[in-house]
Amino acid sequence: MIKDQVRTQTYRNAIFRNRDRIAGKVVVDVGCGTGILSIFCAQAGARRVYAVDASDIAIQANEVVKANNLSDKIIVLHGRVEDVEIDDKVDVIVSEWMGYMLLYESMLGSVIIARDRWLKPGGLILPSFATLYMAPISHPDRYKESIDFWRNVYGIDMSAVMPLAKQCAFEEPSVETINGENVLTWPHVVKHVDCFTVTIQELESVSTTFKFRSMMRAPFHGFAFWFDVQFSAPALLSFSNNPQASYFGTLENVIDTSQSKKRANPSEALVLSTAPEDPPTHWQQTLIYFYDPIDVEQDQLIEGSVTLSQSKENPRFMNIQLEYASGGRSFVKQSVMR
Amino acid sequence: MIKDQVRTQTYRNAIFRNRDRIAGKVVVDVGCGTGILSIFCAQAGARRVYAVDASDIAIQANEVVKANNLSDKIIVLHGRVEDVEIDDKVDVIVSEWMGYMLLYESMLGSVIIARDRWLKPGGLILPSFATLYMAPISHPDRYKESIDFWRNVYGIDMSAVMPLAKQCAFEEPSVETINGENVLTWPHVVKHVDCFTVTIQELESVSTTFKFRSMMRAPFHGFAFWFDVQFSAPALLSFSNNPQASYFGTLENVIDTSQSKKRANPSEALVLSTAPEDPPTHWQQTLIYFYDPIDVEQDQLIEGSVTLSQSKENPRFMNIQLEYASGGRSFVKQSVMR
């Protein structure tokens, strides 16, 4: 994932832009992996960086730190944030915790634990906010390739295979890259996460109702989910060290976002976006396709609700309960992201 | 896999070219899947086709047969070849049984069982022969992308991560598409399978020794494996109905193949090839990379042995034991295809 240039470059920019809040301070890198974010923080002048990772990658991170002569600044801690000990109080938490669809296998829980254990009041968390979006999409090429193919295979009618093909292709959420033209409406905010205040309970089940109006006449094939994370706008934070104030400041940005595809003032906050219209990342988008497309007219209403929750079958899995209605018909689709 | 046009089109050609041996005859399609090969056989004039599949896809195959009004010709049997009953003796077995690297999760065992249970003496098996090849390869781009990347990441020396990166990238065999330019020598035949005579015992462990001379100076990154299958050359089969005779006839072709990249006389037998120089298929090639490349000179000897055998850990897995020596150094690499 370090090879995802959009990701790594945005983190690097975010850390360097926040140099005045990092220089001379104590940083924790939650889930440090190979340690690259810790090194960026050291380069930005951090007095001390605690690089924490529960997996054996911590051993390599320690070697990387040594090879770059940063052992006096970066302390690699091989263990879970629940278990490792840090004597300092920390000024900054940096973490790349986001999973597919933001919340799938996300490490946000570890960031919350680190925050509650170590972060000084008024401390900085990078990224500071995260927003999960959804929108109806049309993707005729994908549908055609997966399903319509069976209508005629070398002159043979194989449409009897189509129900099975639909099940194979569309039962589970699919991580793939679509583009702006596939999206039928402005996105809806499924969940806005304020990293300064979010609780673990708040993430156990996420629910929202949505109402879209299709911007065009098209076959509506399913919903796409994507997210962005914001690295606190320095301008907003300088008004107040109160996280609540910066929260509302940033929320306005988010509301703006839901009304226009491009952010009005990108200079205010640095955003790492995984939206279809932005450069692709390893997170791509997560698609939930219907078994059969719904033909929608321009301005046709699409409404319903979605609930994302931990699977009882396996806590690593995510259940996605979708209810949606359009053109007088209503549907339910339950998917599991495994 | 039906979407692999090289595969489906070659089977279709093979069946239609053998029309004189199929028309009016009884065919078994082993592992019929959606039933497309059975339908090709019916189109080629088969009197009766038994389409056998142990998986639930047989239910769809039966629907496809009905939708194409072929229920009087094609009998779908939902079960294993060991268990289903066919009253007829059969003239032709058709099957698409080949796995990655030919033998990984291959269904050749089912073809052998079907042959021994039902095939008339002198009957036809399509494909008739299969050959697994190997050759040393050079693939600097892949190596660079996976490993050299870590030498310098945003100006940071991350080479401490390289041993782990090598292990992640190169521990297990990798199914990918290379091309003719990656191949350093003519290929070596690891195993030639005569579908008329092969036994299950013969497939349990396959061993060969090899001796290559590099055709160029290059970094030698590993070995590639690929296969082809031949659909009996009608010319050869018309000389004799004795499978042994056709075996030797075809083997000469195979020996030719190992000495020139392109077959001398492609009109003699129809070949479905998964070689790097041929159009890509869903089988691609199987690569076993070394952790570190070996720099070889032009004409430098590369020798050693390879053994492919069922894993004791899990009978589905395949162990690949490679011993190789070049430039006075020798190496051992054990991989598991899971």
From TrEMBL, chains A, B:
Give a yes or no for keyword Transmembrane helix in this entry.
no
Reading the lineage from the top rank, the first entry is Eukaryota
Keywords, in A-Z order: Methyltransferase, S-adenosyl-L-methionine, Transferase
Residue ranges occupied by any Protein arginine N-methyltransferase domain in the UniProt entry: 130-247, 268-326
InterPro entries annotated for this entry? Answer: Arg_MeTrfase, PRMT_dom, SAM-dependent_MTases_sf
Give one GO biological process term.
Answer: methylation
PROSITE patterns linked: SAM_MT_PRMT
Q: Which residues form a coiled coil?
A: none
Single GO molecular-function term? protein-arginine N-methyltransferase activity
Asked whether the keyword rRNA-binding is assigned, the reply is no
Function of this protein? Arginine methyltransferase that can both catalyze the formation of omega-N monomethylarginine (MMA) and asymmetrical dimethylarginine (aDMA).
Q: What is this protein called?
A: Probable protein arginine N-methyltransferase 6
Which species does the entry assign this protein to?
Sesamum indicum (Oriental sesame)
Q: What is the lineage of its organism?
A: Eukaryota, Viridiplantae, Streptophyta, Embryophyta, Tracheophyta
Q: Which gene encodes it?
A: LOC105156127
